[in-house]
């Protein structure tokens, strides 16, 4: 038994030594090529530049995808405001569930879909009985770029000049709550009409559920 263990230990030591020797040999070969082979050095520099360029392009694409002008947001808001709102509590609940689910699905598809995701989350906010609670959930669970777009939408929507076609840049995001026509401003009563929405305001859940 002892002999068996000794043989196993020896085999492991030998294997480890062989692997380590191979790594050292490759490192020595790599260093030699880097120092003495001009073509090898050129290839290394080319690969390094390629990797760096790819990372820069990905970062630029992500930044561009999450940068939305006030004009784009205003135009999107005008389109949404023209959409008919559900009139019954059941229809509002279904409308809310659908658009929040759409927003969650788009938000995981990357920065290119952040704007559309924010629009879907905003549609859900339009009919939610207690907007301030939903804004708190959004703030905790949404990626920051999506939440920022959402806040610009709400800020524009409560602005006296939001409907004006000539609204310029420089919008603020200080007003996070809206109430659409036809929606009860009494948060408690609206919530009761929806059979009490499970807001999850105290939970770090990544989604919004309705009980």
From TrEMBL:
Pfam families: MAS20. GO terms for molecular function: mitochondrion targeting sequence binding; protein transmembrane transporter activity. It is found in: Mitochondrion outer membrane. One of its GO terms (biological process) is intracellular protein transport. Keywords: Membrane, Mitochondrion, Mitochondrion outer membrane, Protein transport, Receptor, Transmembrane, Transmembrane helix, Transport. Residues 199-211 have a biased composition (Polar residues). Residues 183-211 are annotated as: Disordered. It is a single-pass membrane protein. The chain crosses the membrane at residues 12-32. Coiled coil: none annotated. GO terms for cellular component: mitochondrial outer membrane translocase complex. It comes from the Eukaryota. SUPFAM superfamilies: Mitochondrial import receptor subunit Tom20. PANTHER family: MITOCHONDRIAL IMPORT RECEPTOR SUBUNIT TOM20, TRANSLOCASE OF OUTER MITOCHONDRIAL MEMBRANE 20. Belongs to the Tom20 family. This is Protein import receptor MAS20. It comes from Exidia glandulosa HHB12029.
